[in-house]
Amino acid sequence: MLSSPVWRGTPALAFRAGLLLGGAITAAALLVVGSLLRVPLPGWLRWALVALALAALLLREAGVLRFTLPENRRLVPEGVFRLGRLLGPLQFGLEMGTGVRTYLPSGLPYAAALAVLLTAPPAGALWTGVGFGLGRALMTTAALRHPGDWHALWGRHSARLAVLLGCAFLVSLAGAALTG
């Protein structure tokens, strides 16, 4: 569906804008809920919970631990395209960008969500949400433009890539905790 000719030009831009907007909306919602959760928890405990969750997710990505994460196990319905050539892709991107309406290929967004929920300032939350949307946009673009079998390539390298990105995430969280 995403590789059809309608995904060139303005519809593709609307889809990607929806991904960014969806990520920002989710981050804003997490920030609001987190403002209530942060009150009774000391700062060190909030950072420890994020680090513990990230460690568990890294072990899951590496295949050491096996547990399921909550996710909506269905795709965004094609009915969103009833809105037309521009608004349909925008809504489709918005729903994918929230991360709650479709599959997540990795558990790392859960750690990012917990970090926003428990530790992020407003600007950090916004950038995290935009980063999630940008990551989804890059994955979609890479899958569409890859000359070979993207899904086979992703299947071979996704676990290693998730662990590598998770370690980078851990380093950045440690830096934020030490400076914040």
Can you give a write-up of this model?
This protein has 180 residues and is an all-alpha fold. Helices cover 69% and strands 0% of the residues. The chain has six helices and no strands. The protein has helices at residues 10-37, 43-61, 87-98, 108-118, 122-145, 150-179. Helix 1 (10-37) packs across helix 4 and helix 4 runs antiparallel to helix 5 (122-145). The chain is globular and about 50 Å long. The N and C termini lie far apart (44 Å). The mean pLDDT is 86.
**Class derived from helix and strand content:** mainly alpha
Distance between the termini: 44 Å
The amount of helix comes to 55-70%
Q: How many strands, what sense, and barrel or not for the largest sheet?
A: none
Q: Which percent band covers the strand fraction?
A: under 5%
Compose a concise summary of this entry.
By secondary structure, the chain is an all-alpha fold. It has helices at 10-37, 43-61, 87-98, 108-118, 122-145, 150-179.
Question: What are the salient characteristics of this protein?
Answer:
180 residues; mainly alpha; 69% helix
